[in-house]
Amino acid sequence: LCAILNWTSTNPNEPECHLAPIAAWTDRVCCLPQYRWTGSLHYVEGKDDYPSETCAFPGNSGWVNGPVNLLNGIVNTTRILEEWDGRAEEVGSVMNEALKFLVHFYGDLHMPLRAAGRARGGNGIKVMFDGRHTNLHSLWDGLLIAQRLRTLSSNYTLPLLIPEIEFNLRGAIYDPYVRRVMWEGIMGRWKGEVQQWLLCPSPEPAFPAAGNGGMLQTVMGMFRRNRNPINVMNCDFIFPKALDERPYRARYHDADHLGHDRCSKTEHEDEARAADVPYLELDTPEYAGRIKDEFVIEKLIVQGGFGSRGAGGFCGQLWVPGV
């Protein structure tokens, strides 16, 4: 991975490279003319899917944007990476950018709204959160995590007595959050599950691979294994049933037909204006409180990171004390 990213540190006091600095690269370049076409690759929505009323994933009617979707984005970047010859890559090479896209796509795959076939993955559903106007997609794409960072216990500003974890931190604002996820999540409530998450799934026969094929079939198996339970959450609680009840009902349907131009102002929070019909407040114990108490966001982040390791051929490889 370090050779493909063309970033290998020789400092013995830090890892050779990190995925964190490139994980959001696709978001930084998506508005450039040469990358505008990639917007739909961040979503995979079933036409039959309309949470919370109907959860059909993938359903019988295909995808909202046809073949230009997150699923095929993962397949195509994986195929490119299968051809890597082992030599270091230049920044901006096809192989280098394919890896950056793939890392980001695995994060998208574990963001529930990106597989929701309603209102452009929730972008067209305006809500309130912490007294501010936003939309359901933005809430899950950043505001819930931002709230975690603001409210995190000061205990996690101190290093853990686990050198292997501290060695891999970057001195970033989210280091305390990483410590909490490691301590309370991987080494705590998920201790009996995490090794299972790392296992490579059985090859997916519905998607035969070209060439040596191993990585591609691994990717498709992970897709089947991880997306189905996430889609259930969309119908269970991520799309509150109150959205389809008075007084919040039915101000969102006109957004369903729009595309996924990530640079469009329709996706920005400042477009969510107050109107005569009130917006549903989601910073409540029943909604945001449940997500926090059940460690929902944290679990999705960890599973997305594990997915990236699997795509790189590292299935089953994790070392954490006591896990």
Automatic annotation (TrEMBL):
Keywords: Disulfide bond, Endonuclease, Glycoprotein, Hydrolase, Metal-binding, Nuclease. The keyword Hydrolase applies. Coiled coil: none annotated. SUPFAM superfamilies: Phospholipase C/P1 nuclease. GO terms for biological process: DNA catabolic process. It comes from the Eukaryota. One of its GO terms (molecular function) is metal ion binding. Transmembrane segments: none annotated. It holds the Pfam family S1-P1_nuclease. Belongs to the nuclease type I family. This is Phospholipase C/P1 nuclease.
